[in-house]
Amino acid sequence: MKKYLISACLVGENVRYDAKNCLQHKLKQLLDTQQAVVICPEVSGGLSTPRQPAEIVGGDGYQVLRGQAKVKDANGDDVSAEFILGAEKTLKLAQYHQVTHIILKANSPSCGSQMIYDGSFSGHKISGKGVTAALLEQHGFSVLTEDEFLKQLAHE
Prior knowledge:
The protein is an alpha/beta fold and 156 residues long. Helix content is 33%, strand content 19%. It contains six helices and eight strands, in the order βαβαβαβαβββαβα. The strands form three sheets. The protein has a four-stranded parallel β-sheet, sandwiched between helices. A two-stranded antiparallel sheet has the order 3-4. A two-stranded antiparallel ribbon has the order 6-7. Helix 4 packs across helix 5 (131-138). The chain starts with a strand and ends with a helix. The mean pLDDT is 97.
């Protein structure tokens, strides 16, 4: 049986840095039918809602996990520890529930699995993984963006 882990913002929870969400109704249906668990790694790591936007500076999530890059917010504060803690809690949740599919918010410094913002707060994206996506992939999980998952769903 399929079991999903989904970014909380994608099922309508107002947990983004701007206290908004990115509701995707098809993903919310998975939660409503108890096929999914949800988490916001940033909130789970101790960050508030709302909060300053954050970006990875000097690499991507893999480098943050190795201590070679930092996650900084728009004020320049280092929030790497909170991002790592949130990633660890997300991994534990995925393992505990034995999830088979992970759908995380595209472009996020936590959840991005293809592209992330470049750390300049200019809106420019680069190829890379967020901290949570990187940690999950290091532990054998495949991470999809909401768009990738919805495309797959349309072809099933």
